[in-house]
Amino acid sequence: MEMLSLEKELQSNAYPGRGIVIGKSDDGKKAVTAYFIMGRSENSRNRVFVEDGKGIRTQAFDPSKLTDPSLIIYAPVRVLGNKTIVTNGDQTDTIYEGMDKQMTFEQSLRSREFEPDAPNYTPRISGIMHIENGTYNYAMSILKSANGNPEACNRYTFAYENCLAGEGRFIHTYQCDGNPLPSFEGEPKLVGISGDIDTFTNMIWNSLNEDNKVSLFVRFIDIATGEYETRIVNKNQ
User: Fold this and answer.
1) Alpha-carbon span 191 to 94, nearest angstrom
2) Is 90 exceeded by the pLDDT of residue 82?
3) CB of 83 within 8 A of CB of 128?
4) Total domain count, the chain
5) Does 42 map to a domain?
6) Rounded mean pLDDT of 165-177?
7) Which domain covers residue 61, as residue numbers?
8) What's the CATH number where 161 sits?
9) Distance CA 56, CA 75 (A)
10) How far is residue 166 CA from its own chain's centroid?
11) Rg of the chain's alpha carbons, rounded to an integer?
């Protein structure tokens, strides 16, 4: 598989929707993840990321403009022991609760489907990072409709062990802009990861479409110690 430039992937797509990147820093020492949200409607754009314990949550920037919180207010990132969960919806909680009961990542998501936002039926994308005794692996999932038909849910899980330095995977909700929005297709894209957390954060934020970008979360986790650094960027200040 050809390694793609994350910068070019983002610059060439005005509306990938929500996106998750997971991988390893180019020095091999850090587990890396990024999650961004974009929006076309006023309700979707009226959001910010805020820290919530070891994770984050979304909240309305202007509460008076919030019309429907059901699909936009949630905890995208939660931490369960040595596992970091990153998703584009309230399935973060489903995964957290399932894995806390010794279920696997995949089993935890069996109770969920794509979002009920016809006609888009936005896919639910999720990631899980596991760091233990100096080792690091991760998995990603997408739950999507059958080519826009809500009568069927297609479930895909991708697992990555012994991931290589400077490599990551990128999955996002939509192929591109459109009406209805076409769901992401294929396996997560192989992308390069380089630079420190600030360089990586700035690259992603500056590459996202200026009109549609809303918020960005980036975390670098030290694989040896479990200590982490986080960056949050919100368009609404």
Assistant:
1) 28
2) yes
3) yes
4) 1
5) yes
6) 98
7) 6-234
8) 3.60.20.20
9) 6
10) 18
11) 16
